[in-house]
Write a structure and sequence with these properties.
4 copies of one chain form a homotetramer. By secondary structure, chain A is α/β, with parallel strands linked by helices. Chain A has 2 domains: 188 residues, Rossmann fold (3-Layer(aba) Sandwich); 162 residues, Glycogen Phosphorylase B (Rossmann fold, 3-Layer(aba) Sandwich), CATH 3.40.50. Chain A starts with a strand and ends in an 11-residue tail after the last helix. In chain A, helix 5 runs parallel beside helix 6, helix 10 packs parallel to helix 11 and helix 10 packs across helix 14. The longest helix of chain A is centred in the N-terminal third of the chain and has 22 residues. The radius of gyration of chain A is 20 Å and the shape is globular. In chain A, strand 11, helix 13 and strand 12 form a beta-alpha-beta unit. At the B-D interface, helix 4 of B face helix 4 of D.
Chain lengths: 384, 384, 384, 384
Amino acid sequence: MKRKICVVITARPSYARIRSALYAIQSHPNLELQLIISGSALLTKFGSAIDFIREDGFSPDAEIYHMVDGETLLSSAKSTGLAVIELSSELEKMKPDAVITIADRFETLATAIAASYLNIPVIHIQGGEVTGSIDEKVRHAVTKLSDIHLVSTQKAYERVISMGENPSSVYITGCPSIDIAKEVLENPDMDFDPFDKYKGVGNTFDVASDYLIVMQHPITTEHYLSNEQTLQTLSAIKSLNIPTFWFWPNPDAGSAGISKELRRFREYEGHSNIHFVINMTPKDFLKLALSSSCIIGNSSVAIRECSFLGIPAVNIGNRQFGRERGNNVIDTNHDASTIIQSIKTQLNRTDIASEHLYGDGYAGEKIADILATCELRIQKTLLL
Amino acid sequence: MKRKICVVITARPSYARIRSALYAIQSHPNLELQLIISGSALLTKFGSAIDFIREDGFSPDAEIYHMVDGETLLSSAKSTGLAVIELSSELEKMKPDAVITIADRFETLATAIAASYLNIPVIHIQGGEVTGSIDEKVRHAVTKLSDIHLVSTQKAYERVISMGENPSSVYITGCPSIDIAKEVLENPDMDFDPFDKYKGVGNTFDVASDYLIVMQHPITTEHYLSNEQTLQTLSAIKSLNIPTFWFWPNPDAGSAGISKELRRFREYEGHSNIHFVINMTPKDFLKLALSSSCIIGNSSVAIRECSFLGIPAVNIGNRQFGRERGNNVIDTNHDASTIIQSIKTQLNRTDIASEHLYGDGYAGEKIADILATCELRIQKTLLL
Amino acid sequence: MKRKICVVITARPSYARIRSALYAIQSHPNLELQLIISGSALLTKFGSAIDFIREDGFSPDAEIYHMVDGETLLSSAKSTGLAVIELSSELEKMKPDAVITIADRFETLATAIAASYLNIPVIHIQGGEVTGSIDEKVRHAVTKLSDIHLVSTQKAYERVISMGENPSSVYITGCPSIDIAKEVLENPDMDFDPFDKYKGVGNTFDVASDYLIVMQHPITTEHYLSNEQTLQTLSAIKSLNIPTFWFWPNPDAGSAGISKELRRFREYEGHSNIHFVINMTPKDFLKLALSSSCIIGNSSVAIRECSFLGIPAVNIGNRQFGRERGNNVIDTNHDASTIIQSIKTQLNRTDIASEHLYGDGYAGEKIADILATCELRIQKTLLL
Amino acid sequence: MKRKICVVITARPSYARIRSALYAIQSHPNLELQLIISGSALLTKFGSAIDFIREDGFSPDAEIYHMVDGETLLSSAKSTGLAVIELSSELEKMKPDAVITIADRFETLATAIAASYLNIPVIHIQGGEVTGSIDEKVRHAVTKLSDIHLVSTQKAYERVISMGENPSSVYITGCPSIDIAKEVLENPDMDFDPFDKYKGVGNTFDVASDYLIVMQHPITTEHYLSNEQTLQTLSAIKSLNIPTFWFWPNPDAGSAGISKELRRFREYEGHSNIHFVINMTPKDFLKLALSSSCIIGNSSVAIRECSFLGIPAVNIGNRQFGRERGNNVIDTNHDASTIIQSIKTQLNRTDIASEHLYGDGYAGEKIADILATCELRIQKTLLL
């Protein structure tokens, strides 16, 4: 009798953080994979991650639309509520033996709530890390709703236990996103034309030469600053005049403001060297990152995967506040001139090597093995 | 400019656990009370707690219906989702400076989520305690979503800080339910006829003589055992043949099973000495408890308020597992004969005095003072 | 390739109105039955119609909980909204070739909306009839959302066409509930003990002697009168002092008021001859009706099935205003003395014969044949 | 005591169809205006109609986010369900004496359902018209849920009565959108720079010379054809090479496909003469239309307001099938060459005069007068 493991993928980045585990679960003799795709992973305007998931050979068992339009604080809250309603119906039907929820987004919390109330064991990936934004609250709340914790780092392991979780329920597996980074390091060839494959808007340029990547999301707890924060980064990139791939932001509150600013800039101050892209497959993205000169913004990918890849990163503002980082990261604030300065510093560095801070590239297999053998229970008691 | 404090009351017991604070907030010169009543507190079949709230002089600003019928695990999950949707709309309109969420129920979690996503500071009452059931997960998840923690006991204080909360955001206030217990101890006169005022079903008896109180709720994580667990307690009470007030259960998963069992018993094995009641005002209930010989079941009131009142309690099963308890409590399992034995033991005890485990009776005022002066913020970082 | 016909059953009476068609669809060589059970048909307190459906040999493909608790106008509205959300997810997955929606309740409307927006042809059973209450609005709104109309009477047929529907999409099939009545007429033996099989509360009596049946639901458009209306009927029945089966009301707004009144009456004015029952299988209910002396209240069953059975009925108030009725019905208003008078009149009648107003007992087969062959489309144009 | 009239505006075009009535209600001595803005009227990507509403001097009493992202059939269904849930909460609080719902969109149906179940009289604007798409079903379903009908044309009046509505509840008022057209005809000066005021994307051109307007929405019942239908029109416009304002589509199922096609075209086949705009105030839009050479697509504005303005219109496909039209309209199918031919024909016409088919420009005042004096009831009976 195989254990049925239901994985709920709710967003573009969530897929990267579970992909290698999906393969490992699928091919494990004692596990059966159930796959739910929901949230922004289904939406065209966020790059339809579901298409990449299908291309990778997975067949979603259910698609759940629950994003309430608006990209405001209020719509995030309502999207969470609707996700709980819809996911609980679905999980009740699927009857998995355990549900995996990933990281720290509102859909993550919805998954944990739905499964908890249905008495299904909750397995959390990426607990115990520290950042800014609402993510910080959500991540630890999910830890408290979860029964098994698969963490990425030693520090995360210690924190989860310090919060009162039973040490026997906490495992260091590393982050599955690093597994993709390892694949990419081993086979770094950029075997696709990013302009042709991913379209996007803006001029094209020669990817054999130097280029930058920008990925900057809103910070929900300071969403009203999103426009100004975006302008500062835009101004820095424009001034540097280096070819740049700029990724549209995720659907958090403040996102509409960022997108508007980007569109306005594009239309009226267009700088011939920026190409705007919605999304790429996790692997293609890391190949693009590996060949880039520097990654700028506030995405965790700059801190996690790029520390493994050894790519310089300029991390702007509070979103990643407190997250463990390697030698590849320089932190800066939302000011065009300091951003420029930080990027210039990074472009000249020669001391950045691959670090194994978030794993060694074997997370997927470790996760599948744990899932196949760990004790699954739904009762727990604070050990404090 | 007064601080607007929004209190969300979702259930019968929540009201007792905040009532004295409501008075203190309402009369505080620097605070303005906003009151939302929702969940089972609105429903006739759970005793319409909203009527008692109005009788006490409070005027709810909003009533929110979000309970999905069924009293199953699935309907609890959906009720949580619908509560998030509805509460977020309401909070967005009310624009409070902070939101108070009480204890550890699914509606509590919904309140915390709605407020968190709207960037409204969340104040949690009764964090840091330990119990069984899904409540244990929910309570600590709410702690991680909350910005200010108003706890009842020293141990709870220590636990909340151990979980990584900033000590400057944690306050020991005692439980406001104890404030009512103090009022009742000072004025113990049973100045109402419980049969006349609260109707209910079943024969009446003389409340000047000995009587018992039973209050037994489902345990969500073992909801399928609810019927059998109820039968054991019913059998014990029948066998003891002492007049008994029996309170209908709360709306958690398993509740329909308990109610059905009670109705069946009543119809076909009716024991002339059990009177079934839905609900009482917090004060009347404690007066009834104070005059009783013993309180039986798995309600926290037996452990919290009754330790202050010095009333013997027989606590059955896992629901209160791990909760700090005083000298008044004897624990037992779901077995009729051990329940009988435990009750008999309690009826003979003479060593039970009032204990101040959950507060000294001044929680309401302390809470109002803290609310008026504490720093309100929405950003926090795990201190671990 | 069989046509997949999805039937959504939302309430106790809906089942009786489709049961024979379910059998006919299931056994038809060109049809495949998909069955969704939702709403009050799932709820213990409304008699768990789903249990009867299973006993009859059907296996529901999905169960949808969407009833928001409260039994108020507001909770009916919300239940409708939640039903649309949940049903649309389910229908999207099931991908039926057509969806059957029954009669005129809010869940009926939700089914029609969900299917319409998903471009699935909607087939409506029981359109074109006229009554009071909100049902009157809902029924005709469902007609306008529906693509195929399977009506019970010639008048209903004419009305649906007069409303602008294409005559080629309207069929007179009679009501499937009459098919059960025909079975019962042919085999009238009361082969069960109603007290033993259906429990209920209140004294038992000899069903071989005379007894009455009362079935009185709230009228949503005058829901605030429910208590008083109930009292008048209670008073009439008490005064007549004839053994009576009294059925609890459906979950419309006003229902909680009726139930409260019934419970209060039972507890404090208990009349030894009333037995309160929640629900019976459609067949058992009609057997009970066939052996009864008179059916009282405002249920459509008194007008539809009982005209076929030839059972005297006293119809009280506006709920059935405008519905075609046979010789078996006397109408009266909400006044105890006129109700008593009407019942007495009915008890003395000898002129009531079986009438085929709502069908001849072959509706199920006719429906299946139409479903197998009719043109299924989703585009329509008002023919006016 | 003023009558409280609640108007629910859910979309960009709904505002134009009620604007003059809002002014008339607001200034009527016996009426009080309550204004709810919801749906796409709140969303940036659909042009934030709420901003225009505020600029016109109205203060919304509530904003309701209920659009589930995806622009699919399923998301339309879910958006309807969520709208019912949210609107019913809001209407319960506002307690209007009547609710106005406009035209034939899913949000329109949600408004009618919420109000009906709350026993609030429903007033429908624009009933009795005939078109294609799901709108045709929805419009007539709303008629059956409504208590008062304010129609635009004599034919619509007759149709509503033929459907069984009481003639005393049906009034011909003309369409309030014509009131704006009348203002514009009287003061046709284009007193704004459309490029400067409404930004948009694409090249600018001289609006004193000839230009076209395109407004083409998805047809929900043939949504899978949206891309191809869009391509045909794009191809026709490109080939004609006349400067063109192209408006982005509404949020119906198929909309994402249209937008994607437009963006792709813009990026890769960009024609220097197309300027893409999201939205304009109703008045500015009609001024733009009045100065245009022809309006192309499938919007009702081309048929309603433009017949009053005397502007040639090319109506493509089935969306407006059956709608009464004037001399200004030529119908064509989704084929580039016939579209080109039709536009050329229209550009040469000299026989188009203002027609009063949808009203004479005084609808707002007539509506306010009716609202102030008509009998408001919630009980109705089919008159057939």
